Amino acid sequence: MDIHSVFIAVFILLRCNPGESFISNSLRVIQEVADGTVGAVAKRVVDQVRKVVDVSATASQNVNDSSLLGKIREGVYDVKNGIISGVDEVVGTPVTLDQLTFYLVTAENVENPTIIDFFKPDDLAQTNGRIIFLIHGWMSYTNSVFYTDLSKIFTSKYPDSHIVLLDWDQPASDYYPFSAFDTESVGEYVGILINRLLANYGVSLANILLIGHSLGAHISGFASKTFTKITGKKLPRIIALDPAGPLFVFRPNSKRLNKDDADVVMVMHTDAGVFGYPTVIGTIDFFPNNGANQPGCWKKLKAINLATYSQPVTCDHSRAWKYFIEAVEITGSFPSRKCDSYENFENGNCDRNEIVTMGDLDTVATGSFFLKTNSKPPFSIPLP
């Protein structure tokens, strides 16, 4: 079992006792695991969790909105008596530039990305095409399929595009609350780099596109907030792939991705109420299979085999970038229909409504869009 799996175990196994914080409960649960099957790996996690020294607020709130309560599911969150509790918010140390690396991928160097000079991004600016920032989530890295496949597809379909791979692997590999805290400072660096491209190199604002998965979606939001603070302008488009839910559900708009961060905030929900944000958060929100319980992701949170559960548990959350890769590669795939609810979509009550495809990088449509998918690739299926 890898360290990623152990971190996920904390979320899944936690059922905090009254008066027992997430941190103390984490230590108890992981120590129990450490004494069993995962040994040294879990002991390293215990040591890391013990570094937590400043807990500023608990991510819990009384829920008066029944629609929100209905979309939060047991597992990552604990729902009791109308109160949603999750992990604890922490105050960490902002990320420094030396913890980040920006890589440039072009049609000429797909297999061998080059490092971008943050202060003199000359190579990055040498294009009239789109500049697309890809931003990974928690426990991910630059060699992930999300990065490699999308880079190949974008540079193949749009040869004049430049792809920026943000490597924030070090902060993203921390204890989740610290990684969540770090999204703001990471986003600030992205926003500063974007402003530098426009101010110093004359790059067109219309060519900037941010695509983030999970915590990377919130980094995109903070990048845009920073850019707006500097320039008074909005970025044209953010694509948020299953924005992270834990901790962010309870934050104000200023501390998370929201629909005002860019002219278009295009969101895909695949694990709503568990690892993903549970409700509408963008200008246009796609809900494949009602935004949760993706076909092919069968295992339930309460039936976890510690030796094998990492993939099944994160399957729904990862489907967002898997769907998006297919949507970009196959033009016209993932047709989605505008509707006010999944029930009305299934019942055919919205059959005359607007249709948008999930891979449309230029859509200005707004509202909630629903669709169904297959359980394995190709995931896209036609609308009925």
UniProtKB/TrEMBL annotation:
Main location: secreted
Protein name according to UniProt: Lipase domain-containing protein
UniProt keyword annotation of Kinase present: no
Residue ranges of domain Lipase in the record: 100-379
Bilayer-crossing regions: none
A GO term from the CC aspect: extracellular space
Location within or outside the cell: Secreted
Superkingdom of source: Eukaryota
Entry's family note: Belongs to the AB hydrolase superfamily. Lipase family.
